[in-house]
Amino acid sequence: MITASPDIAQQDDIQAIFAAQRRHAPQMALTTAAERIERIQRIHRWIQDHEDDLVKAMYADFRKPASEVLLGDLGALYYEIKHTSKHLKSWMKPKRVSTPLPLMGTRGYVHHEPKGNVLIISPWNYPFGLAIKPLITAIATGNVVMLKPSEMTPHVSKAIKGMIKELFPVEEVAVFEGDSHMATQLLELPFNHIFFTGSPAVGKIVMAAAANHLASVTLELGGKSPVIVDETANIKTAAEQIAWGKYFNNGQTCIAPDYLLVHESIKEPFMQAFRESVQKMYGPDAQTIEQSDNYCRIVNNRHFKRVQSLSDDAVQKGATVTLGGQMNDAENFIAPTVVDGVSDDMAIMQEEIFGPVLPVVSYRDRDEALRAINSREKPLALYIQSKSRQNIDYIMARTTAGDTVINDLMWQFGHMEIPFGGVNNSGIGKANGYFGFQELSNMRGVIRRDFGTSRFIYPPYTDKIQKLISFLVKKL
Ligand code: NAD
After folding, report:
1. What is the domain extent for residue 312?
2. pTM of the full predicted structure?
């Protein structure tokens, strides 16, 4: 067990720990790739040794199935750890850049240096993975970190606190459990960078707080991510993939397909295939699904009521539940649900659903689908199910999104060569592998002159010098 510095009497003394981290940051900046990898591997070993405890903690918090803990929380984390450990040495090397003609005699480099004091605030839906993944990147970049996990998943937050206490001195990494009050106190401190994962509404609060210290931010947010199924799509595969993406973790995934845009010519066979996929994955009826260990719960009753009211509002305004709809308030259980006939005046088409309810919109021509997407905020993910190269190109060129997966779903989070993140309302900045490494580094440009000088363009600006300057400017 690593103990705190003697001058830090109280583990939860935010100010003292921040000051200790600030003093310690220059030492962290000097750490080698091997030293940072050793720290990352400490986390790796701890997780491997405590996999069962983490599965139990997540089951206690919201009955998350063990396989979804492994795939959603730990899998992406293991991959990030492996990928970072493999590449960190080369990422840390200064990158040589080419020299423009007028700067002959110089060499240019990009150095990656730590930002310094980093704050990580994480959500509850992948409560371990989304707290620890940015921590891996922050350690890889040589930063010191204060981390606040979500209060909604207390068993996991406790495990995170225990892990960090065991593995790191508080000058390097410190965990603060608590709700928005704790987050507010932390946000008052002059961090150099804030890595926030959560809702767009809280993202705005975080960015405003960061502005007080001109801290840089990474905001991994959410919103309404559409999935388009066009007339050429492979119906069976698309239905299976969308059912998996929508009901994995009970729809509480930032990159879950929020709503479906399906071409009207294939709507019926698609919805039939979708129902069959749900039955195959989770069970033939709501009762069986409720008893199944393969189906997660809504995290708490406040969120249960929120999702319930989205569905109720849609039905009151004329939509129809065509699959599921069964709910158990006492258990925060909502069966895999499909709501058809939705329109833009319904809350379900305005707010991020973050639950196992899929609204269906059918379209006749692709411009209609594009209007539905482009009338909303830029999505975190846009999914396209299509065999038509022409349709795919058409949609890609006329939309924007944090990431797009074509003919599959959600793998952008677990692909370390793909930048993961949103655009504006769905996020600012990118994570995963080298993209995360750049995000948490200050990219310092360095120019070193080896010979010569620029004296020949200094004043007084004689005709000769003026000509030389105009020649050089043209050569830039
Ligand atoms: P949230 O924004 O309510 O909370 C996230 C974190 O912010 C928690 O730790 C919470 O304690 C803290 N917080 C709450 N109020 C705060 C305040 N006023 N000031 C500062 N911090 C505050 O989000 P959530 O409900 O935990 O998670 C769901 C949201 O997160 C969804 O919108 C989802 O799409 C998004 N999300 C995004 C990603 C991503 O990688 N882009 C991943 C997971 C979840």
Report:
1. 226-414
2. 0.95
